[in-house]
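Sample pair:
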Amino acid sequence: MFWMASEPNLAPDAALEAIIHDFDQETVHLPIIDEDAIDGIAGALGARLRDSDTLARLGGDEFLVLIEDVRDSNAVANLAQALLDQFDEPFSLSGGHEVYIGTSIGISLFPDDGDQADEIVKNADAALYRAKEEGRGIYRFYTAALTDKANE
């Protein structure tokens, strides 16, 4: 599943943020989450986004959100928190089951954290794993220290 308003604009003066959203495995038993539930979760995520933003399912339980034309990292942090908060309540699955879904989020910024789309996504993924290491259910921004740690 992939929704895109437009091709990302990676001009030198553009602002682009990548958010990687992933379920915390301890809180979800993925076999009970079928494609209908994934579609519902994607719909819940998409409801928090603007028409110009992009939501893509990377696979399994991982989603990518691309946000264009945001000049303030606080706005991105607020969105990340809103995405996390929507999973504070149980999520209804087909068949009437309700489950709590824990999530973590990693964020990277263009051009600060890379000048190519794949680099932005890779760095958001590194920030996601930092969030999971630090307790899950939180968001983290990418920092160069994450790359330095990975290269050690």
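Residues 1-14 have pLDDT under 50 and may be disordered.
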